[in-house]
Amino acid sequence: MRITEMARELAGSFLEEPDEFSLVTLNYKETTVEAIIEEAQTLPFLSDRKAVVVNDAFSFTGARVKSEVNHDIDRLVDYLTNKNDDTLLVFKVFSEQLDNRKKITKIMKQKGNVTEVAEMNEQEIRQYLSGMLRDNDVSMDKRAMDAFISRTGISYETVTNEMHKLILYTEGTVTAGDVEAVVSVSLEQNIFKLTDLILSKKKAQAVGLLRELILQKEEPMQLLHLIIGQFRLLYQVKLLLSQGYQADNIARSLKVHPYRVKLASRDVGRYSQEVLEGKMVMCRDIDYKFKSSYLDRDTLFELFVLEI
User: CB within 8 A of 50, min separation 6: which ones?
Assistant: First the structure.
């Protein structure tokens, strides 16, 4: 993920030659505050500098997270307030925003630096992928790039992993055929496709795709919730478009990635608000059946796709 790479870059710029002694990674869910402080204050072997990266530092947010340890936040506040060692301490937070009401967050902002790592938009992802290709002396035309994005979406981690696979597979030039042969379709893109098949009444294809996803060990309940979320997005986008909202404003209002709004805006004109409302009601009903029926969930889900 971009946050992980940013943390690695920060540590790398601080350390002359990072190694297992000078660069230490800890998990906040498993490591006590006392242990983190002790690690930060312990000098590394054969090095003048040390960096400690702490993953999932949820105490800086308002999230309620199950942790294997109880954290003495007052102890951490005191350490950060009076920090007198030379260790670079990096707390990674996977959250849209910090909780600025918390004392620990206020101290961190006073004593340290906050680096926000935002999601890339589609243009930035395309530029990033072009850079990867260029660095590996591989070319890729727009048709192949479009095919790649349509299969992966624009999740940084997904596109990075899939492009690495593609670069290893190809010999200098990536074609649309290479993309189809090598690149996996992301779950999010499959949900877009499955929802579109349902709305287009292509039931046999929808059931076929559903079976593929279940064979890939996707849970029916998770798939149902993702489909419900997609119908809800389509309905909300259609409603806001009818009120004159632009795509960027819709993304901000709904707090979803602009790329999802772009895909929804592209397809939503084919369906009325009444149709989308009806599909959402049917999803609610099948959700109830999932929780109350003794039928096999895979079978129940197939019946739902055939009925909706």
Answer: 15, 21, 22, 23, 24, 40, 42, 43, 44, 86, 87, 88
Domain count, the chain: 3
- Name the domain boundary from 136, 157, 182: 182
Where a domain ends, among 111, 137, 171?
A: 111
- Same domain? 106 vs 39: yes
Examine residue 116 and state whether it is found in any structural domain, yes or no: no
CATH code assigned at 107? 3.40.50.300
* CA dist., res. 224 & res. 201, Å (int): 17
Please write the tens of the pLDDT for every residue from 246-268: 988 999 899 888 899 999 998 88
**Domain encompassing residue 18:** 2-111
pLDDT in tens, 196-242: 998 888 988 998 998 899 888 888 888 888 988 899 999 999 999 99
